[in-house]
Amino acid sequence: MTSIDNDPLFTSLCNEKTLQSQKEGFFNEFYQSVAENFTGKSASWLQDVYKKVPTDKERLRLIYEDPVVAYEVQGTLEHVEPVFRGKDAKFSWQRREQALKLLAENKLQQALIIACQAVMRAPGQGVDRYIDKGLTLALALWTRAEVFIRQLDGKRALQDLQLAAKCGLPVKQNADYYARVAKCYALSGENGRAEVAAKLFHQLSGHNDYALTRLKEDMEDLRVLKQETQSTEVERTLPKLAGEGESSEIQGASTKIKLAGSKEDPRGRYVVAASDLGPGEVILTEPAYAACLHAKYYGTHCNACFSRLVAPVGCPDCCGVAFCSVACRDKACATYHRFECQYLDLMIGSGMSILCHVALRMVTQAGTPEKVIEEGKMLRDTFCAHTEHRDPEDHFKRTLMTAFLLRCLQKAEFFGRRTTEAPEPTEQELEVGAVLLSALQSLQFNAHEVYETRITGEHRFDSAKVQYVGVGIYRGASMFNHECYPGVTRTFLGTAMILHTSRPIPAGAVVPENYGPHFMRQPKPIRQRNLRSRYWFKCDCRACVEDWPQMDKLPDKPRLRCPNGDCGNALSYPSKPSQRNVKCNKCKQQINLEASVKMLEASDQLCTTGAEMMADERVDEAIELLKKGIALFAQAAHPPHKPTLVAEESLRSCFADKGNANRY
């Protein structure tokens, strides 16, 4: 590391940012109180004792046993207790009453917001029998279902009604229940089921013919209103991989890419094209191995799949997170959330980074210590940690964070009911802690930010902005090396990552990703500094070696490609038609560049037309035109070229529109 780290202070700041908040949270105070013990007389403890311990597991053991730090570490960890916001039946009842009032005033969107709050804060059936006879959650769902019916959303209304029934709402002799069910089916176009529900209503209402007639009139009115209202919801699915199915060596990848290199190679293992790749090919569709939502989106996005919340479903015990469906909730509560539930607010209060939460999630989602230890071997083999290069103080901070997270796991009974309240770990707990500590190091280099496209205006592209909502770790995607001019675009559907090629890549060539510093947006010195300090390598990609200018300083015309066979030499663009006959200084042949100039003009025109299709929101047509324009440019010229770079970014926007895209 010393050979590339020429800015130790900035590197230290980058390392710290991946671990904790510098301004808030109690972890920093925890570290300072422990660090005071190895200053002064014990100033050399980190170098002479801690650094010389050979493994993560033994370093973790050391901080519980070495008298220099053990007392402070164990004394602090003994105070770890659950911190979370529980349910509140009275609050839920108050919100339900407000929602009903807003509903009567036909303020549907406001009523929905308040009804959702009522649902999220309501305790489960029978928890608080002094309010609503223990049916607060069922009644909150009942109220929200009525809001959805008024909003012509039969699908979500029916889901709430069915969930209300599971939560104790009496339905056997409840005529009103079947009246609402009938309206839901009418809105969903399921007329047969709507008629069955209407008949049940008729029976339970004492065969009240007048009430049945009124119900059928309401159902017909809802059908008419639904037909007049254009639905904006689009069913989104993962695209099909290019090539012949999925690779056997790269998780979620196409057979058109493969691994090259080795752990001993300075570049490590990396991805190359197994066959020629054109622009816009799907080369990876990979679910996250683990992913965590940023805490500020806990109230707006599903904690499990990151989808935008419309009808949130809560955890049975806490109010800290929300889910988009019962399926997401049940999956989370059966795995990771049952261990994180009561400690989420404590972890947020510690000031730990979201990468620390992802490290914890890699453990909690496994469900058992045995599974964590088994998975840990694979994780260490897949994700580089660069432990040997890490500064001992930074490593010690990560070990201390591991101890805090391990204590949360102990208290949450991840290891089962313990025989002692002392924080000192057992051998099995140390093994799990070692996996955590390895993850806290490797996530710095391997995690990916998960984003959505936020559309805030009428036009889906003009008002679109990228918003990062979480962080994920991906086994397949981690194999891609960085270049400042990437060959792929990264988009997301839920927490699944999708990689499309953004330009042609010949067989055998590296398929590069981009870790953030792009030559269009940052000059070379800034990119190099960021990559050295954040990812610990010196970039020698083509954009860095040739020191390509940023977007606003690019020349109007690119260098043309020598059309003679496989020569491919870069030739200056002829400023006059009379200068199109030149001699290539590489292949020594006399070359006519007329065809290359015309191909470049055709490429620019295709990209321009693609942009016009985007302006008309004709996304699929735009994609095809942009792909053709980018491919034609690669035949005629060398990057960088402003119109083609714009086209590549436009292609990313089109693919992102088919993933996590939400109107606000």
From TrEMBL:
Xref: SUPFAM superfamilies: SET domain, TPR-like
Question: Which InterPro entries does the annotation name?
Answer: SET-MYND_domain_protein, SET_dom_sf, SMYD4_SET, TPR-like_helical_dom_sf
Query: Can you supply a Gene Ontology BP term from the record?
Result: methylation
Q: Which PANTHER family match?
A: RE32936P, SET AND MYND DOMAIN-CONTAINING PROTEIN 4
Kindly state which keywords UniProt assigns to this record, in alphabetical order.
Answer: Methyltransferase, S-adenosyl-L-methionine, Transferase
GO CC terms of this entry: cytoplasm; nucleus
* Record organism: Anopheles epiroticus
Q: Which GO terms describe its molecular function?
A: histone deacetylase binding; methyltransferase activity
What's the protein here called? SET domain-containing protein
